[in-house]
Amino acid sequence: MQKIPKLKRTNEPEEQPPRKAIHEEPPPPKPAPVQLPPHAYTRASASQRSYQMLLVDDHVVIRRGLRALLASQPDIEVCGEASTGTEALELVRRDKPDMVILDLTLPDMNGLDVMEAVRKDSPSTDILVLTMHFSDELARAVLRGGALAYVLKSDADTDLLAAVDHVRHRQLFFTSKLAHAMAQNFMQDPATSASDTGMPLTPREVEVVTLLADGKSNKEAAAALGVSTRTVESHRNHIMHKMEFVSFSDLVRFAVRENLVTP
User: Fold this and answer.
1) Measuring CA to CA, which of 1, 32, 35, 52 is 20 to 30 A from 139?
2) In the β-sheet with 173-174, what is the strand arrangement from edge to edge?
């Protein structure tokens, strides 16, 4: 009988020739992450943070005008507003702003007292005084209290942004009119102008004289300074005796001569 050849099963894998071993090179090591010093993260976040400012004035129209003027600066943000010294100090303690624009005449506290509290509660907060009082002596008292700038409200539209820029760079700034008056006083009497004491009145007595000479009654002056009427009367009597004023007219003439008020 004729032999039938065996057929291969289709499900059996065909034999493949042996493959040559391929030697793969190991992947290159990943570079180690760059470790930045801790202060680098702080600087980065600080550079992205806007400059925070607190506005303190008892007149809402003044605060609105200041906010509108500061809105033209892209890196400045008004973080709050206050109409009293008490409100201002609460916001300073909570927000720690970079700068406070402060009016010296507030309904509940004296501006100099507010300055002292700000310096205590938030030493990193700078102070720019914005006031209606044209007085080189009061300006010196303000600077001794830790403020870096003194600007008249009448000059705010021309001087405020320049003053803000000076304060941000830790530089002193006087409103233009006051700087001119202080320079004249220095030329007339350099020894007196350079003195730390200036006139014989204290900063609080200067404020009392300014308010009274400006036509305020004892009660109105007391409300502006945040003290009792009796305290203002005591200051007035002490000033009259210290300065040897015979009448109230002498006090007014003194205030005009010292540029505390305008005639």
Assistant:
1) 52
2) 76-82, 51-56, 99-102, 126-131, 149-152, 173-174
- What is the per-residue pLDDT for 135? 76
> In this structure, which CATH number among 3.40.50.2300, 1.20.210.10, 2.30.30.30, 1.10.10.10 belongs to the domain 199-257?
1.10.10.10
- What's the whole-model pTM score? 0.57
Which residue in this structure is represented by tokens 């309904």?
107
Distance CA(208)–CA(239), nearest Å, equals: 9
Selection from 230, 211, 216, 41 nearest residue 138 by Cα: 211
DSSP bridge pairs for 80: 54
**Helix, strand, or coil here: 169?**
coil
Report the distance separating Cα 164 and Cα 57, nearest Å: 17
d(CA 108, CA 86): 7
Check pLDDT > 90 for residue 227: no
Antiparallel, parallel or unpaired: β 99-102 and 126-131:
parallel
Q: Tokens in use for 42?
A: 């702080």
Q: Rounded to whole angstroms, how far apart are CA atoms 38 and 259?
A: 52
CB count in 10 Å sphere of residue 120: 11
Per DSSP (E only), the strands in 116-210 are 126-131, 149-152, 173-174
Phi-psi region at 152: left, alpha or beta (left = phi > 0; alpha = psi -120 to 50): beta
The ranges assigned to domains in the chain are 48-191, 199-257
